[in-house]
Amino acid sequence: MLRKTGYEGRSQISMVSLDELVPIDHLVRKIEYAIDFSFIYDMVRDVYCEDNGRPSIDPVVLIKIALIQCLFGIRSMRQTIKEIETNVAYRWFIGYDFSQPIPHFSTLGKNYVRRFRDTGLFEGIFHRILEEAARHGFIEPDVLFIDATHVKASANKNKYVKQIVQEQSRKYQDQLDEEINQDRALHEKETVRKKAQCHAEGEHD
């Protein structure tokens, strides 16, 4: 007998927590338990003014969103935010429950520019997190993805992984800068300039 499935479950209210829905072996859960993200607060203290009255995104959340994009190969930050909106594991990782709206891309861009513009902070933090992820085996040491191609590791894996992590951190920040600049240009706002670029321009003044 043909049995049809009803759709009543779509609107059914259930008492369930995010933690119950994230598999114990999910990568984000492993990362959360293995890596201490609290060092980020100390590193960004000077660029976060607690009494300036402006709402801000938790810096750990900013980094975790970037990490999700990098580790899961999501093509853009905009797409990453869309993925987080509907992905229970990603929400759990950044500490946002079902009812909390995920920061809009423009809001994230403003926070990024306001806090990390003309500094090496973001790249430094991201590099450290990727290095920790590699050390714990969350980034495959034998085959790493750089520009969508496989790169085989050399005999000196530790040195090689550090080099690739550094390159990946730099490439990711360049990609994020470009995406934010496209959005800012669309809204007729000043674009983000790299610290090195600012120094070079200053030398020619």
TrEMBL record:
InterPro entries for the chain: Transposase_InsH_N
Domain Transposase InsH N-terminal as annotated: residue spans: 17-112
Annotated stretches, region: Disordered: 183-205
Taxonomic superkingdom: Bacteria
Protein name: Transposase
Organism: Paenibacillus larvae subsp. larvae
